């Protein structure tokens, strides 16, 4: 089953709106002054939580029952990421030099492809798993925020 989404980020907004056929079906929104991001896609509500400073831990919490459902493990160079979900490992990675394309895959191949421009993008998913779809967008947003923070510090 192949599903297509588009996403848009408004200038000065802290998140994304996710659309399917021009209908708003989800969002990913950073909470001000917190290290939490809320996400929703097709009614599935999640909380992305970052803890720690030097050794950060990233967890995704299902808001239905407050259970931790995903652990995100970044590699040392922050170019690839392991997503541990439902006792399986998935790989998140950039697919081009400009970091405008990225994907999530497992041992069977690519499950979700993402493509972005400055403030919008497209998602092609070969799975109906809203958790993985939102996680891929969250990781890209996390890297974008880290790059912005590093640029502001210099």
Intertermini distance: 45 Å
Report the sheet with the most strands, covering strand number, pairing sense and barrel closure.
Answer: 12 strands, antiparallel, barrel
Contiguous low-pLDDT stretches (5 residues minimum) are none
Instruction: Provide the number of structural domains.
Output: 1
- Strand elements, count: 12
Which structural class matches the secondary elements? alpha+beta
Strand content: over 45%
The H-and-E topology, N to C, reads as: EEEEEEEEEEEEH
The whole-angstrom Rg is 15 Å
Strand order of the biggest β-sheet: 1-2-3-4-5-6-7-8-9-10-11-12
The number of helical elements comes to 1
Described by the principal axes of the CA atoms, the overall outline is globular
Helix content: 10-25%
Mean pLDDT: 88
Description:
It is a single chain. The protein is built from 1 helix and 12 strands, in the order ββββββββββββα. With 154 residues, it is of the alpha+beta class. It has one domain. A 12-stranded antiparallel β-barrel has the order 1-2-3-4-5-6-7-8-9-10-11-12. A hairpin with a 2-residue loop joins β10 and β11. The longest helix has 24 residues. The mean pLDDT is 88.
SSE layout and pairings?
Layout: E1 3-8, E2 15-20, E3 23-30, E4 36-41, E5 44-51, E6 57-62, E7 67-74, E8 80-85, E9 88-94, E10 101-106, E11 109-116, E12 120-125, H1 130-153
Antiparallel strand pairs: 1-2, 1-12, 2-3, 3-4, 4-5, 5-6, 6-7, 7-8, 8-9, 9-10, 10-11, 11-12
């Amino acid at each position: 089953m192949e599903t297509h989404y588009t996403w848009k980020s408004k200038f000065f907004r802290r998140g994304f709106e996710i659309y399917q056929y021009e209908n708003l079906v989800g969002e990913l929104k950073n909470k001000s002054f917190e290290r939490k991001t809320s996400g929703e896609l097709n009614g599935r509500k999640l909380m992305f939580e970052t803890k720690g400073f030097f050794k950060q831990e990233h967890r995704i919490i299902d808001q239905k029952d407050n259970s931790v459902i995903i652990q995100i493990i970044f590699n040392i160079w922050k170019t690839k990421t392991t997503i541990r979900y439902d006792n399986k490992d998935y790989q998140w990675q950039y697919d081009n030099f400009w970091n405008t394309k990225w994907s999530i895959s497992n041992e069977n191949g690519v499950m979700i492809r993402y493509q972005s421009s400055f403030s919008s993008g497209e998602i092609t998913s070969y799975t109906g798993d809203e958790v993985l779809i939102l996680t891929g967008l969250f990781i890209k947003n996390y890297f974008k925020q880290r790059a912005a923070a590093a640029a502001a510090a210099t």
